[in-house]
Amino acid sequence: MSDKKLSEILTMEMALSLKETPLFCGLSDKEYKTVAQVLKPIHAKKGDAIINEGDTGEDMYILLSGILSASGLQSDGTQRWLFNISPGDFFGEMSIIAHEPRSATIAASEDSVVMELRSLDFFKIITYNPGIGFKLLRSISIVQNQWLDQSSKSYSDLTRWGETARRRAITDEMTGLYNRRFLEESIKERFNNQSMNFRTMSLLMMDLDKIHGINDRYGTKAGDIVITEASNIIRSCLRPGDIPSRLSGDEFAVLLPDTDIKDACVVAERIRENIEKKQIEVPESPSSDETTNIGTRTSIGIAIAPVHANTTEDLEEAADLALRKAKELGRNRVEVFQK
Length: 339
Known about the structure:
This protein is of the alpha+beta class.
């Protein structure tokens, strides 16, 4: 069958059947069209493996036509059949959402057509169409709970994240801020989107000054309390469209879309001042039930695109260099990157 003929059939079948599948049935026609335009068809011949157990992967799949079978490796080295996948079923979602290795091998039992949803496109949908993203994740959670009875070994951990799938996909668990991956995807999208080439965006890099001293004096629990309180302050200083994230430990970053140097400095100073004046209640010592109030401070570096950088990596490096300068000049200050 020619690629052109296959494409025509796929277009017809997608319009007639994909919209009614469990993953997409909750979407409006307009929402469905937004998702459908990023799906990639894969023509799998009988015996072809779509994914292999244990592999890393960041894409999920929806079976359009044909039959797939799932199998798992047993302790004696043999493959055991687990279940069949029918048209309309999806798979691979644990890797795209929770970054888990593939839990089974999925192969074509007959010639089949599978639609691929790439990780990058999935997170773009969540970023720019959060309503669609929520509906997709909710559908995934509902279907996965129904699948638990079919394969308890492969899906026994799904209930732990079903209701929090969207949060786990894009946020830091302790603080509720966005995670590094979501931040970087957001920056890349703005660099890659041609319509945004000349739109300014600012990146703030920051960390809390001498957090290790707090951990040593009051304990790691106190350190976590300080980090969480600082996260709340950062969030309170931002607009709805800004993207605050926790990178690791006491390191944070904030993406400010459509923000120039002057306005970025205003935001950074607001964050710095509010963190400096905040008194945080923590245990007096790691083993004490008594509490005390302590303060903390933050150093912040700022870089602007496209003034300072034209790639995600260069923007992050420029902001990080500005942060280092703020520390070298005495901490508890804001510095803008200078070439």
